Amino acid sequence: MRVLVTGGAGFIGSEIADALVSRGHEVVVYDAMLPSAHGGVPPRPMRDGERLVVGDVRDRDALAGALAGVGAVCHQAAMVGLGKDFADAPAYVGCNDLGTAVLLAAMADAGVRSLVLAGSMVVYGEGRYDCPRHGVVRPGPRAAADLNAGRFEPNCPDCGAELVPGLVAEDAPVDPRNVYAATKLTQEHLASSWARATGGRAVSLRYHNVYGPGMPRDTPYAGVASFFRSALARGEAPRVYEDGGQRRDFVHVRDVAAADVAALDAVCAAGPAGFAAYNTGSGEPHTIGEMAAALASAHGGPAPVVTGEYRLGDVRHVTADSRALRDELGWKPEVGFADGMAEFATAPLREPGRVVHQSRL
Ligand SMILES: NC(=O)c1ccc[n+]([C@@H]2O[C@H](COP(=O)([O-])OP(=O)(O)OC[C@H]3O[C@@H](n4cnc5c(N)ncnc54)[C@H](O)[C@@H]3O)[C@@H](O)[C@H]2O)c1
Ligand SMILES: [Zn+2]
After folding, report:
1. Domain-wise residue ranges, the chain
2. Residue 215: what pLDDT?
3. Which residues line ligand 1 (CB under 6 A)?
4. Which of 2, 316, 323, 325 is deepest in the core (most CB within 10 A)?
């Protein structure tokens, strides 16, 4: 089958394209080569079975050409991260939401009925919390006064008790807390509307914190693992915000690519039209402090420094229950935390002037 992978020159899209080619699929890599993601560096070389189309997902004519002969779309293209400030909002909404709408319209025209979308755990806001007295509760955003005083854990909104963090499931209420998160949720709503209107099948994989070789260098758009890894590469200590106790689910990019392949199989199989979202996490929660320590130790130092700084709007804990993806799509993560971090500690990042795509250990 021919698969269009939007954002296929990016960190996760490259790995998906690789996984698809090695399963004998033909891949059209469709990517605008955003300067914020690539820093003006030319695209990685294409492998046999891949064809690059440099184009924007907001360009319907270019998409119409690229969709010729395509059986399914894997939509990874997006502006990622928190950006610099609110002035980035129109660019996020343009790339992520207008872009998704244009892509879905082009797919409707071309009769392509199978879609996998790169979703995100950011749609949940804070993760799941249990109060000993009130059961599952939903703490609001943390106050600057608490964070300044080093009170990082959210408390029960009803009784102020300490909360126990848990695993968030797909039916948890959504609570997007920044522009990027809002655009990722809108992408899902658009995909769901498209499925209903066209009889298509769509799956959104709500990735948790993806890491691995080829991750972009530290920019305002990159994730925390990349910041730590970049600091170590400069010989500097990773600077860990808050008290380092923030819990996340770090999932390896090869496992994410395998989830995309499984989801593509599912949306291409015969079945009823519709939309489904799946958490995509390792199922092995770790703290940011543990991640920094694992990277620093595998890199040979320097040891992380816990700074007590914070970013207003960051959530304290969010970790995934990815059972549905395992049970319904037969996916299983293969790369454990210790092995994955040891590899990532020395694997190259995507640096300006040198595009790295290392798909195998
Ligand atoms: N990295 C993570 O931890 C993570 C977590 C959750 C969700 N995601 C999602 O996964 C997807 C891939 O992210 P990534 O980490 O590989 O980021 P990335 O920046 O490496 O890749 C995104 C790619 O999309 C391209 N792109 C952006 N806007 C485009 C447009 N308008 N038209 C065409 N191409 C465009 C960029 O040039 C880039 O190559 C995104 O949808 C992101 O929201 C990533
Ligand atoms: Zn309570």
Report:
1. 2-346
2. 87
3. 6-7, 9-13, 31-34, 37-38, 56-58, 76-80, 95, 99, 118, 120, 184, 207, 209-210, 216, 223
4. 325
Angle between helices 179-198 and 99-110 (to 10 degrees): 20
Question: How far, in Å, is the centroid of ligand 2 from the Cα of 132?
Answer: 6
3-state helix, strand, coil in the chain (%, to 5): 35, 20, 40
The protein residue with its alpha carbon nearest to ligand 1, atom 4, reads 210
Q: Single out the residue of 83, 20, 5, 4 nearest to residue 265, CA to CA.
A: 20
Q: What is the pLDDT of residues 259-271, one digit of tens each?
A: 999 999 999 998 8
Give the residue, out of 67, 76, 227, with the most ligand 1 atoms within 8 A of its beta carbon, to mutate for a pocket test.
76
CATH topology of domain 2-346: Rossmann fold (3.40.50)
pLDDT tens across 280-302, in order?
A: 999 999 999 999 999 999 999 99
Atom 38 in ligand 1: residue holding the nearest Cα: 10
Residue 358 has pLDDT above 50, yes or no: no
Strand pairing class (135-137; 128-131): antiparallel
Give the pLDDT confidence of 105-124 residue by residue, as tens digits: 999 999 999 999 999 999 99
Indicate the pTM of the whole model: 0.95
Can you tell me the mean pLDDT for 12-20?
Answer: 97
Residue 359 in this model has a pLDDT that exceeds 80: no
How far is C-alpha 220 from the chain's CA centre?
Answer: 15
